[in-house]
Amino acid sequence: MESVKRDEVFDTVLIANRGEIARRVIRTLRRLGIRSVAVYSDADAAAPHVTEADEAVRIGPAAASRSYLDIDAIIAAARATGAQAIHPGYGFLSENAAFGAACAAAGIVFIGPGAQALEVMADKIRARDHVAASGVPIVPGFSAAGMTDDEIARTAIAAGFPLLIKPSAGGGGKGMQEVHDVAQLADAVATARRVATAVFGDDTLLFERLIQRPRHIEVQVLGDTHGRVMHLGERECTLQRRHQKVIEEAPSPLIDADTRARLGAAACAAAASVAYTGAGTVEFIVSADRPDEFFFMEMNTRLQVEHPVTELVTGIDLVEQQLRIAAGAPLALDDVTLHGHAVEARVYAESPARGFLPATGDVLVWRAADGVRTDAAVETGSTVTADYDPMIAKVIAHGTDRADALAALDAALAETVMFGVESNVDFLRTLLADPAVQAGAMDTGLIDRMPAFVDPAPSRAALDAAASVVPASAGRSHAAPLWLARSGWRIGADAPDAAQSFLTSAGEVVSASRTQDPGDRAAAALAVAAPDGTVWVHADGVTSALTPLTRRQAMEHRLAQRERVDAASDPELRAPMPGAVVAVHAPHGAHVSAGARIVSIEAMKMEHPVTAPHDGILTLTVAVGDQVRRGQILARVTESE
After folding, report:
1. What pLDDT band is residue 563 in, cutting at 50, 70 and 90?
2. Which of 162, 421, 446, 641 has the smallest set of CB atoms within 10 Å of its CB?
3. Which of 327, 363, 371, 331 is nearest to 347 (CA)?
C-alpha cells in the first residue's frame, strides 16, 4: 500500500474507540511512525488495544455513556497526551456533530468530515431530501416527524404496505422494523421509538417502501479539502441478520461495469453535496429483480466495518488516506483498478443455535488462521462482556476471483479457534456453503429463510481429544476406586478403553475414549478444560463446548430426554442472556397467549423479546430497568383455573 512521509500528517493521534478498529488504526499509525494514544473504560483496562498503543488513558467506567461516549473525557485525554488529531473509528462518536465541534473548539483535528456532512447525513430524513436535490434517486416514503400515532397510521395505510421503519438519527440497522400490515404497526412503532431513544437519543422515525428481495450495495468514497471527490468501487453487504451485516464482499457479483459507473457517480454527487472530506460510504438499496435500479438509503460519514475488502481489492490503506486528508493533503490517487475479489466474515460473540443470543465470558484460547487478514478485538486471556457490540473479529480473504475468495475464507474460518466464549464461526461456514451464496443470488432475507441452525456434532477426533483433557477426578464420588474406574472390565474379557460421556450443546449425550493416548484421530485436535468444567475442543474445522458427565448423569439425561416429549412446557420464563429489561409488554396478572411478548431484554446494543410458552396468567418478577443475569427468572405463566 502507498506510504506517506511522517511530516505530511501528525506526530500523535488519539483513537476514540476500542476493539478491532482501534487496533487496526494503531497498525497504520505504527507503520507511518506516528505515536498512538488509546482510551479505555474500566471493562477494557487489559484489552489488546490498550497494551498495543504507545500510551493509554482511562476515560471512565464500563458503560459506554460514561466512557467512550463522554466527549469531555476524550477531549481531556487528547489534550493531556498532546494528540494533534482524533480518529473516531466507527460507532460511538464517529458521526457525532457535537464531537466534531468539540474537537474544533479544542484545536484538535477531527479525522472525519466537516460539520455540514455530519449534521445533514446524521438525520436520515434530512439526508434523503438533501441528496434528492442533487439528483440522487431515493426510496419513496415519508417522515413521521411531529406526527401522532393516528396520523402515522393513516399515512402508512395511504402509502401502502410493506413498509420499513427506521430511526431517523440512527445507523447500523438498529431499531429498524418491517411492517407488513396495519396490525403490526403499533408494536413496530413502539419498538423502533424505544430503540431510537435508547441508542440515538432521538425517537424521530422515517418510513420507506420496503423493497422486495433487496440487495444492499454501498460505495466507498474519498473526498479531500481541495474539492476532489472520488469513489473506490462498491461492496456487497446483502447477507444480513436483523439488519446487521454478516458477510461483505468487493466487488459485488450483481453489479456490471455500467451500473458501477452510475452508482459511483451517484455516490460522488451525494458526497459532494455536503462538501465531504475523508473516507465515507454511500449506501444504496437495489432490487435483486432490477439490478440496474438503485435508491439512496443513507451515507455513513465514517470508516465502515467492512472497509478491509475494499483495501484488499484496491491496495489502498483507507486509514492512511483519512490521515492524509485530515492533514490537508490533496488526494494523490489515480483511477482505481480492482484486483481479484475479497470477502469478509464478521465473527460475533453469540450462540446461533440459541437464536443468536449474545455470549460473554473469558477467552481461554484465541487462534487466528494463517494466510488471511484477521482484525480481532480479542486474544487469549481477553474478556467479552455485555457492555459493547458483540462483534469480536473480522476474517477477510482475497482471491483471484469470487470462488477462490469464498474457498479461502471458508478454509480460514475452519482454522479459527475461540474457546471460552460461543461464536458464530460454524454458522458462517454454513452460510458460505449455501447454494445461493455460492451463486451470488442473494437478498437481505436469505439468512432469515435458512433452517434454524444446529451446532455441528463433534467428530470422533474431537471427542477423543476432549476425553484426554477431562480431569481424572471429574464427576467422582466417594465410591470405591474399582467402581470409579468405570472400565467396564469383566473376568474373561479383554479390558476395554475407559469411556467418558459428554453432553453436547444440542443436548445429546455422546461418549469418547478416555485412554491416555487418544491416537492419531485426536492428534490434529485442540482441547482445553475450562475452570467451570466445560471442555472446549476444535477438530475438523468445528469448535464444540462439551459438558463432562458421570455415567449416572448420562443415564438420567437420556431418561429425561425420553420423557420430555410428553412433558408440559416450562411455566418459568428465564433470561436467555445477561442484560437490561427495557420493556414489559403485558401487565402483572394478565391473561397471555402462547407466543406473546412478555419482556424485552437489551444486551450488546440489541433487543431480545422473551415470549410466553403457553396460554395462562402472567406473574412478573422483574421491572423495566432491572439488570438480569442469564437464566434468571423473569416471569411465570401458569394455567388459569
Report:
1. low
2. 641
3. 363
DSSP 228: -
Residues comprising the chain, all counted: 641
With residue 267 as reference, give the H or E element that holds it: helix 257-272
For residue 441, CA distances in Å to 71, 116, 484 come to 44, 38, 57
Alpha carbon distances (Å) from 384 to 80, 358, 392, 510, 535: 29, 10, 8, 29, 19
How far from chain centre, in Å, is Cα 501?
34
DSSP 385: -
What amino acid is encoded at 354 in this protein?
A: R
Q: Residue 552 — pLDDT band, cuts 50, 70, 90?
A: confident
d(CA 560, CA 431): 33
For residue 282, CA distances in Å to 151, 184, 347, 416 come to 31, 30, 24, 32
Are 149 and 203 in contact by the 8 Å Cβ rule? The answer is no
pLDDT in tens, 327-337: 999 999 988 99
Between helix 402-415 and helix 425-433 the angle, nearest 10°, is 150
Strand order, beta sheet including 509-513: 509-513, 499-503, 542-549, 535-539, 526-529
Whole-prediction pTM value?
Answer: 0.82
The residues, any chain, with a CB within 8 Å of residue 407's CB and separated by 6 or more, are 399
Query: CA 306: distance to chain centroid?
Result: 11
Q: In this structure, are residues 579 and 386 in contact, taking their beta carbons and an 8 Å threshold?
A: yes
Rounded Cα distance, 91 and 81, in Å? 23
Alpha carbon 126 to its chain centroid, in Å, reads: 27
Instruction: Tell me the three cell numbers of residue 564.
Output: 420430555
Contact 24, 375 (CB under 8 A): yes
- Please return the burial class of 31, using the count of CB atoms within 10 Å of its CB with bins 0-12, 13-18 and 19+: middle
Alpha helices in 106-178 (DSSP H): 115-121, 124-132, 149-159
User: Backbone dihedral region of 92: left (phi > 0), alpha (psi from -120 to 50 degrees) or beta?
Assistant: left
Q: What's the 3-state SS for 287-319?
A: ECCEEEEEEEEEEECCCCCCHHHHHHHHCCCHH
CB 427 within 8 A of CB 352: yes
Nearest to 239 by CA among 230, 229, 252, 258: 252
Q: Which of 84, 105, 88, 37 is nearest to 301 (CA)?
A: 88
- Can you tell me the distance from the alpha carbon of 417 to that of 424, in angstroms, rounded to the nearest whole number? 11
Separation of alpha carbons 424 and 469, rounded Å: 25
Question: Taking 90 as the threshold, does the pLDDT of residue 237 lie above it?
Answer: yes
Please give the Cα distance from 266 to 333 (Å, whole number).
20
- CA end-to-end span of the chain: 72
Report DSSP state, residue 183: G
Encoded amino acid at 322, one letter: Q
pLDDT band of 476, cuts 50, 70, 90: very low
What are phi and psi for residue 599, nearest 5 degrees?
A: -140, 160
C-alpha torsion angle, residues 396, 397, 402, 408 (rounded to 10): -130
DSSP 8-state code for residue 284: E
